[in-house]
Amino acid sequence: MSNPNNRFAWTAVYFAIIALIIGGIYAMSTRVNYDWNWSDVPQYLVSTTGQELRAPFDGYVTIAEDGKSLTLAEYEGERKQTYTDFADTYAESGDLVFRDDLLAYQAGLKPGILLVGLWMTLKLSAVSLVFALLLGLVAGLGRVADNPAAKRLSSTYVELIRGTPLLVQIFIVYFFIGTVLKLSAFTAGVAALAVFTGAYIAEIVRGGIQSVPKGQMEAARSLGMSYTQAMRHVILPQALKKTLPSLAGQFINLIKDSSLVSVMALTDLTKAGREIVSSNFRPFEVWFTVAIMYLLLTGSLSWLVRRLEKRMAHD
Fold first, then answer.
1. 188-200 pLDDT, tens digit each
2. DSSP 3-state of 33
3. 51-107: which CATH number, 2.70.70.10, 2.60.40.10, 3.40.50.300, 2.30.130.30?
4. What is the pTM assigned to this prediction?
5. Model confidence over 240-275: pLDDT tens digits?
6. What are the E-state strand segments in 243-291?
């Protein structure tokens, strides 16, 4: 049993080191000739500008005298559209506007560009993870299979994918395969991330299966189980417990690797940050915020995996 005094002392050392790191960062920030302005960041998380009201067709604008309603009458047509409860207008009475032109902003809150990018990152990572798990499991089983064709195909896939950079694979999938098969940017991004992550999961699965004593398979087969049944009910559950920390690390890497899809026509968290920096020229505040959002994602996943580990340890 550990000495409480020692635990307290080492805890104090930990907090002292963290304080030194924070102090060092603050000291560096004061030496940089930069005008810090964090007040601009909240608008990129939750926007107060409200909803954009755009013209659904070409037409003429009429604004009521009290300024509380705006009517769009179709050009060479009979359709009319009236808007109320808007905060600001971008057209005047008598203006001819065209379809999708901005008419006004409707009061209210809406997700900022960083939250929109965060949602795209979450969606992209979640869908990619599902396919990566399936692909990795199949390839991992192929790596330990007795069938020469399955083993060689799995080995070729793993070595080919692990031996080339993810960014290069994204370019190939998006600009070559995606163009030939007419894939959307989201589908191409999911495919690239799933194939890349699946190769690493395959190696984790292979290592987990080989770490289970061979006697487990022999015992299962002696009970009348087929190879598939023994693998499903005996080997894989044990392998999962052994590989869960490695799988968690790979899941976290997948979330971070998803930032590379910003080279495609997808507004993920990283691309949202780049767009903001190009418009307000405040890179430090934006990139610190983006880093914190990624940290919250990966930290939450790590916490969930630790909970799962403890639960499986008691089963």
1. 999 999 999 999 9
2. coil
3. 2.70.70.10
4. 0.78
5. 888 888 888 899 999 999 999 888 878 899 999 999
6. none
